[in-house]
């Protein structure tokens, strides 16, 4: 059977990338974190102190941006490079998290990212996670998974992750950021976050990583 395209969408911080990595590793597929692309673009705009309402300036910056995913032997993961620099850690900062959904709502930014995402899928054998993968990027994906989890549980997980880097940020602030990103992502005019009609829903509020992988693999195997 030819290799599959697996699309995983869902709300912020509900474990999409964990499941996507697990599936990619189990199937020996490539994993692409589409959110990292929007984060890297945001990172570059913030670094250059571009006004996020200045579309002309944003267009100019996009011309200079080259994104790549490369295998990082030290973490054993695929990580994002921006113009020859590994920015995997830098794009996870709180400043980027606060601005990224505004940037991701800009049609030119989405066009730029989606064109690259489709190119990455040409060879198939790919697991890509994001917000519009099963609805816009790969509407014909072989497998579509939509992930969700209770917002309190999502905030708790994300807060724990952020602690080493940002001990000053409270759990309440994290929850507020998640809800705000979900609001912007679901309400934007271009490619809003939606569950594709044919997506399989996984609510992982009370699942372990092993259990969620098992549920997803059982579903993928039915399609293979
Ligand atoms: O997945 P992650 O939370 O890192 O994505 C960061 C942001 O990028 C999301 O909050 C969303 O605004 C945007 N995004 C998007 N479309 C995607 C992936 C991410 O709009 N396919």
Automatic annotation (TrEMBL):
Protein's UniProt name: Cytidylate kinase
Q: Does the keyword Kinase apply?
A: yes
State one Pfam family annotation.
Answer: Cytidylate_kin
For this protein, the record's HAMAP family field holds: Cytidyl_kinase_type1
Instruction: Supply the source organism for this entry.
Output: Thermoflavifilum aggregans
| Primary residence | cytoplasm
GO BP terms: namely:
nucleobase-containing small molecule interconversion; pyrimidine nucleotide metabolic process
EC numbers = 2.7.4.25
Sorted alphabetically, the keyword list is: ATP-binding, Cytoplasm, Kinase, Nucleotide-binding, Transferase
Domain named Cytidylate kinase is located at 6-221
- Could you say which residues form the signal peptide? none
Question: What Gene3D superfamilies does the entry give?
Answer: P-loop containing nucleotide triphosphate hydrolases
Protein family (similarity comment): Belongs to the cytidylate kinase family. Type 1 subfamily.
Q: Name one GO cellular component term.
A: cytosol
């Amino acid at each position: 059977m030819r290799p599959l395209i697996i699309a995983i969408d869902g709300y912020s911080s509900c474990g999409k990338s964990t499941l996507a990595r697990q599936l990619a590793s189990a199937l020996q597929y490539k994993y692409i974190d589409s959110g990292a692309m929007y984060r890297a673009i945001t990172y570059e705009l913030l670094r250059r102190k571009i006004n996020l309402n200045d579309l002309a300036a944003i267009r100019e910056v996009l011309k200079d941006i080259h994104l790549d995913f490369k295998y990082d032997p030290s973490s054993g993961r695929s990580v994002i490079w921006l113009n020859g620099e590994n920015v995997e850690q830098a794009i996870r900062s709180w400043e980027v998290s606060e601005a990224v959904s505004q940037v991701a709502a800009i049609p030119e930014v989405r066009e730029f990212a989606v064109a690259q995402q489709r190119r990455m899928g040409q060879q198939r054998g790919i697991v890509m996670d994001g917000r519009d993968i099963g609805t816009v990027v790969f509407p014909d994906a072989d497998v579509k998974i939509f992930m969700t989890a209770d917002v309190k549980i999502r905030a708790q997980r994300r807060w724990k992750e952020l602690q080493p880097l940002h001990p000053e940020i409270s759990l309440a602030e994290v929850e507020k950021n998640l809800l705000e990103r979900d609001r912007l992502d679901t309400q934007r005019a271009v490619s809003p976050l939606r569950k594709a009609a044919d997506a399989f829903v996984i609510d992982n509020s009370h699942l372990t990583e092993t259990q969620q992988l098992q549920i997803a693999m059982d579903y993928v195997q039915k399609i293979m």
